[in-house]
Every structure is written in structure tokens, then in C-alpha cells.
Amino acid sequence: MAFLSDTLARVKPSPTIAVTNKARELKEAGRDVIGLGAGEPDFDTPENIKRAAIAAIESGKTKYTAVDGIPELKKAICAKFERENGLSYKPSQITVGTGGKQVLYNALVATLNPGDEVVIPAPYWVSYPDMVLLAGGTPVFVEGRMQTGYKITGAQLEAAITPKTKWVIFNSPSNPSGAAYSREELKELTDVLMRHPHVWVMSDDMYEHLTFGDFEFVTPAQVEPGLYDRTLTCNGVSKAYAMTGWRIGYAGGPEALIKAMGKVQSQSTSNPCSVSQYAAVEALNGPQDYVIESRKAFERRRDLVVAALNTCPGITCPTPEGAFYVYPSVEGCIGKTSKGGVTIENDEAFAAALLEEAGVAVVFGAAFGLSPNFRISYATSDAALTEACARIKAFCEGLK
């Protein structure tokens, strides 16, 4: 009898975490490495949020809380959904988890049975397929190519839906591509979903506040109110407020689903960190200056990276609408050989050679389900990005 679960054999460790760890190990060994793998703002958590956490500690708010969130935070989340998305939820329709990942996983565990399918547009966040597999479901991929801005069409979505489809996972702005769907593009997809009432929508809006220019963010249940009763609208404070380590994610949805997710959480982690929850209340209810300022910084960095990468031989880098990633194609590099003698057979080989020979850590595209590409997180300093792009250009110029 095997000791480890057969289910575990179906999943793989997170490639983004692996790249970040590898870059850290090389730095500790004395190598000059610029890590562009982590999807984490480099800014510090705003002072008002830190002060709220300190106040919570000093007033003794360090005990167990309700399993899926304190009343104060659920109230703040309800107000946020109403204020920013035009979605009306009651506290009983809100769940709070230990990060956005737990919220998504709870929903999948609470709803999937063997044979249930989950449609996932590619390129996708690396954890979506493996969470589906761990929950007993089957991921079904739909490719959004670079030619269509890494977005899928209504016709593609229609073709992917079967009687076994339980969920569609929707992520805009996207990790890894930064692509964001306009209201018109999203309406095309929601029109398809309205024709398939057995399909639920899991909308991962984690990068909602990171859109650039005059782009208007919208979420599925906002665009199509007819989907409200079968949509789980997910979000969190990690990216918008530089609170990745605080581990607070949340979602709004139908009461029966929220209750089922609470049951899962009650037998796994129980409540999220009490202090983090009080900090999240301040994040949502307090001044939003940081959100505005960080958006400006990320837009500047996006423009810097896109312009620099498009000077690199063999690389084509579209301009994304949001998040803090770019997802350039390395199609023009495939088949060439690096100065170190590595044949660039695919994007994984490109990323490995780039790290070894140029000291730049990126995540290869196959990890996100679409090749030949790689992902750069530009959530780091302008100086580091400028140097990294210069190294990437020199590496590409050295390919023969």
C-alpha cells in the first residue's frame, strides 16, 4: 500500500514559488540574481493599516474569531462590493479566508464531485488547475493567444462547456498576462454563460485596483445581474494594499455556497488571523491614497518593461491592461543556442539559461499553460527592472 495519496500525485508544486526560492538560494550563495518571479508588491503595508493591527493587539483582539470572518470585516466587505462593484451582499453571503487561495480552494472542495469539469482560460494562474485536481475535478483549458490579447472569446467558451461543466474560473486582470476584459468583452462571455444555467462563475478579482489608463474594471455579476445567484466574486487585500503576508482573502456569493465553504474551513484552518482581519477592516474602510499612488508606480514600471523587452531580439511583449505582470513571447528565440551552449528548445529552457547565464529569474510560460512565453513580475524597483531588462537583452543578443 502506498503511503502518499494518489490525488497528490496528480498535482505539482507551485512553479512561481519554486523560482522565487531558487533565486533566493542563489543570492544566499553569493550570486548576483535579480528575482522577477514573485507576484508581490515591493511596497510596505500602509501605515494606517499597520497601526490598526497594533491597536488590535494592544486591545487584546488576539483570540479565536468566527470561522469565516469577524462581523466588522464582513460589514466592510459588503460596503466595498456595493461601493466599487454595485453588488449588494449581506454579511451571511460573505466569507473570509486565509488568503484568496484558500477561498478559491474552499469553494472547489465544497462543490466538486468526480467527473465535474472546470473551465480555465489559459494562460492561467498556476494554482487553478492543481486546486481543481485536489478537489477531485477535471480542469478544461481554453487558450487565449497573444493575437487576441491573451483573452478568450465567447465562441471558445461555448465550445468548452459540456453537461459536466460545474465552474468557469475567470481572472481579470490576469495573472500571468495582465490582460483585462473590457465591459464589452466580458458581456460576450456572460451572454454565453446565461445560456448554460448549470455553470457557475468563480471570478478572481484580486488585481481589480491595478488597471491602467482609462480602463474600467468590471466583474461578471456586475455586467450580467442574471449571474448573481451562481457567481462567487473573490477578492482580497494582498495586492491592492501590499498585504501579501497578512493572508486575508474574501468572497461574496449565494448563502448556501458560503455556508458550505464555512464548513470546509471549520475543519481545516478555522478562522483567519484575528489581527490581520482588523487590519483588513482598516484597509477597506480607511484612506485609499496608497491604492492610487501604487497604481501610478506600477503603470510607470509596466511601460518601462514593455518598451525595454520589445528591443530584445526574438521577444515580443504586448502591453497589458492591468496587474503587475508582462507575458512576452520568446517564439523568436526557440531553436537558438545561448553563449553558454544551451539550446533553447522551449520556454523552460529559456528561463533556465537566463537565470544561469544572466542572473535573471523569471517564470517559464508552460507553468501557466501557454508557450512559448515567460512571466515577469514588475513589482520591484525601477532600477532593478532596468538592469534586468538590460541583462535579458544582452542574453537574447548572444543567442545564435
TrEMBL record:
Positions of the Aminotransferase class I/classII large domain: 32-392
Keyword Transferase: yes
Cofactor(s) needed: pyridoxal 5'-phosphate
GO molecular function: L-aspartate:2-oxoglutarate aminotransferase activity; pyridoxal phosphate binding
GO biological process terms held by the UniProt record: amino acid metabolic process
Keyword terms of this UniProt record: Aminotransferase, Pyridoxal phosphate, Transferase
Domain of life: Bacteria
Enzyme Commission number(s): 2.6.1.-
InterPro entries the record matches: Aminotransferase_I/II_large, AspAT/PAT-like, NHTrfase_class1_PyrdxlP-BS, PyrdxlP-dep_Trfase, PyrdxlP-dep_Trfase_major, PyrdxlP-dep_Trfase_small
Matches recorded under Pfam families: Aminotran_1_2
Catalytic activity of the protein: L-aspartate + 2-oxoglutarate = oxaloacetate + L-glutamate
Record's keyword annotation contains Transferase: yes
Sequence similarity: Belongs to the class-I pyridoxal-phosphate-dependent aminotransferase family.
PANTHER family referenced in this protein's UniProt entry, alphabetically: ASPARTATE AMINOTRANSFERASE (PTHR46383:SF1)
Subunit structure: Homodimer.
Name of the molecule in the record: Aminotransferase
Organism for this UniProt entry: Paenirhodobacter ferrireducens
Highest classification ranks of the organism: Bacteria, Pseudomonadati, Pseudomonadota, Alphaproteobacteria, Rhodobacterales
